[in-house]
Amino acid sequence: QVQLVESGGGLVQPGGSLRLSCVASGNVFKLYGMGWYRQAPGKQRELVAAITSSGRTNYAEFVKGRFTISRDNAKKTVYLQMNSLKPEDTAIYYCNAAGTHYWGQGTQVTVSS
Predict the structure, then answer these.
(1) What tens digit of pLDDT does each residue of 25-77 get?
(2) Contact present, 49 and 35 (Cβ < 8 Å)
């Protein structure tokens, strides 16, 4: 079993930045693609960004040019750098090991002035 723990969320003003981290347990992290998802109250969970085991990235259209996903296999960590944040980015952000039932507990991101 893989345990995923997100951190780095918080309250930020519109236009600000946050960096989320997702730290994984286990010894096979490097074999998994990873994704960041978000869910706002009353809305479905949606994919934000994904990165393959080899480092290839994909982004949802609504974050292209603003967010960057990266990974450090030595640290078993996936990052989501979020810039130019908008109020509509407010959500709980979760990381997921692609193709698995492994999810973190989420970290709250609130964009408000």
Answers:
(1) 987 788 899 999 999 999 999 999 999 999 999 999 999 999 999 999 999 99
(2) yes
- The dihedrals phi and psi of 31, each to the nearest 5 degrees, come to -85, -15
How far apart CA 12 and CA 27 sit, in angstroms, is 34
CB contact set of 42 (below 8 Å; sequence gap of 6+): none
The single-letter code of the amino acid at 73 is: N
Q: What is the residue-wise DSSP string for 54-104?
A: T--EEE-GGGTTTEEEEEEGGGTEEEEEE-S--GGG-EEEEEEETTSS-B-
Instruction: Look at residues 25, 40, 17, 50 and name the one whose alpha carbon lies nearest to residue 108.
Output: 40
Q: How far is CA 37 from CA 15, 27, 58, 84, 112, in A?
A: 20, 23, 12, 18, 20
Q: How confident is the model at residue 81 (pLDDT cuts 50, 70, 90)?
A: very high
34 half-sphere exposure, CB direction, 13 A CA radius: 31
